[in-house]
């Protein structure tokens, strides 16, 4: 174990709290939305939702068989005259007469006066009538109105993430739409004069913009929506115009690149004078970080190295976005270091690791440009700022990627 270094950098925890607050505040100002149930999968209910009708909404048969009154079948075998047949979908408004039977299908209304259904397996055709071989008590194989839920009762409580079973239940109780929490709307802007769109030819000094899709797909995986995606050069005018466009229908803007100490740091240059804070967080990768309240729209600025970008997202943005989306926290766990893990002093390090049967091993070098190597990792290995070595056999905290 090494020693803590004094540093003026902000702690990861402080920065995470700041970003979480910014995201939560704008999201909380959004009103709930009413959406058709057909679009509601994965949405989170805003309030308790009550049944509009009883379910079942009429007394019906649980079996294919014969509707009877239990008294008439107390002593079996007994033969009863059959007065007709009831199918699912029939109105079933004809009253049952004691001592008779009505052929009935599953789901068909049980006529008033009948109080049991004899399954067809327990009967034999007997001329024009039916021979009942097994007796049934009152209520057997009859689904009572409201036995699943009564109108006015709560079907799904507030805060439920709607799955297929909830959508089915809400449909059954007479709903066709539902009021849900808003989804965080996120704009993603990648900056860098060197960036080229996927699929186009690369010129000298150019590379593909991978951060844009990494960030946009992370946002979607965490239950929010991407309302804008842009790629800006390092020109202030272009980036400024893109910010304005992005802010039109986004709650939060995430940028990548342009926040370090170089000559062409467009994000810092444009947002610094507009109230942005650009600082160093005591972590590696992902040290340079920025945040701005851009006329009410939070802009969260990550450094451009692809590993730094993703680590920044996972550490600072994912927890809040998942919570607001109603998704469970991605969660960290403790694993045994199969091999000794080495780290720099003074900064919390997030190394890329691969899970093994017994624990975890560090899987790629420290370079924050190693975008492809990162794809082979399963987790981030989180080494505290004051730790320079985790000996093999000790445990380390890991974050899922
Ligand atoms: P920056 O933070 O703008 O100084 O960028 C740091 C490094 O990350 C540079 O090598 C960039 O080329 C690279 N980089 C920046 N943005 C992206 C991006 N969107 N996709 C891939 N690499 C990027
Ligand atoms: Mg750049």
TrEMBL record:
It is an enzyme of class 2 (transferase). One of its GO terms (molecular function) is molybdopterin molybdotransferase activity. It catalyses: adenylyl-molybdopterin + molybdate = Mo-molybdopterin + AMP + H(+). Residues 187-323 form the MoaB/Mog domain. Its cofactor is Mg(2+). Its EC number is 2.10.1.1. Pathway: Cofactor biosynthesis; molybdopterin biosynthesis. Keywords: Magnesium, Metal-binding, Molybdenum, Molybdenum cofactor biosynthesis, Transferase. Belongs to the MoeA family. Catalyzes the insertion of molybdate into adenylated molybdopterin with the concomitant release of AMP. This is Molybdopterin molybdenumtransferase. It comes from Rhodococcoides corynebacterioides.
């Amino acid at each position: 174990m090494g020693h803590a270094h004094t540093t003026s950098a902000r702690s990861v925890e402080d920065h995470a709290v700041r970003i979480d607050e910014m995201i939560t505040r704008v999201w909380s100002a959004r009103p709930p939305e009413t959406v058709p149930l057909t679009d509601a999968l994965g949405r989170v209910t805003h309030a308790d939702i009550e049944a509009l009708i009883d379910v079942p909404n009429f007394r019906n048969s649980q079996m294919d068989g014969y509707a009877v009154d239990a008294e008439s079948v107390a002593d079996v075998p007994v033969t009863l005259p059959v007065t007709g047949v009831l199918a699912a979908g029939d109105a079933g408004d004809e009253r049952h007469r004691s001592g008779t039977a009505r052929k009935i299908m599953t789901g068909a209304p049980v006529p008033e006066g009948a109080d049991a259904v004899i399954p067809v397996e327990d009967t034999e055709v007997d001329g024009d009538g039916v021979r009942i071989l097994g007796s049934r008590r009152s209520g057997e194989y009859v689904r009572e109105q409201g036995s699943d839920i009564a109108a006015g009762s709560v079907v799904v409580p507030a805060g439920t993430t709607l799955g297929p079973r909830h959508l089915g239940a809400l449909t059954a109780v007479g709903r066709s739409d539902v009021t849900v929490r808003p989804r965080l709307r996120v704009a993603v802007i990648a900056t860098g004069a060197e960036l080229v769109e996927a699929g186009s030819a690369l010129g000298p000094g150019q590379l593909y913009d991978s951060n844009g899709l990494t960030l946009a797909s992370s946002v979607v995986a965490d239950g929010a929506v991407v309302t804008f995606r842009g790629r800006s050069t390092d020109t202030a005018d272009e980036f400024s115009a893109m910010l304005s466009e992005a802010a039109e229908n986004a709650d939060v803007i995430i940028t990548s690149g342009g926040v370090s100490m170089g000559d062409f740091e467009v994000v810092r240059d444009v947002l610094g004078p507009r109230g942005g804070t650009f600082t160093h967080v005591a972590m590696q990768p992902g040290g340079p970080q920025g945040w701005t309240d851009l006329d009410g729209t939070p802009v969260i600025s990550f450094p451009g190295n692809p590993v730094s970008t993703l680590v920044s997202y996972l550490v600072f943005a994912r927890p809040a976005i998942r919570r607001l989306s109603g998704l469970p926290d991605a969660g960290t766990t403790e694993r045994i270091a199969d091999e000794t893990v080495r780290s720099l002093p003074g900064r919390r390090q997030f190394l890329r690791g691969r899970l093994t049967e017994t624990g975890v091993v560090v899987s790629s070098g420290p370079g924050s440009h190693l975008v492809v190597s990162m794809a082979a990792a399963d987790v981030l290995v989180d080494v505290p700022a004051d730790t320079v070595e985790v000996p093999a056999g000790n445990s380390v905290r890991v974050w899922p990627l």
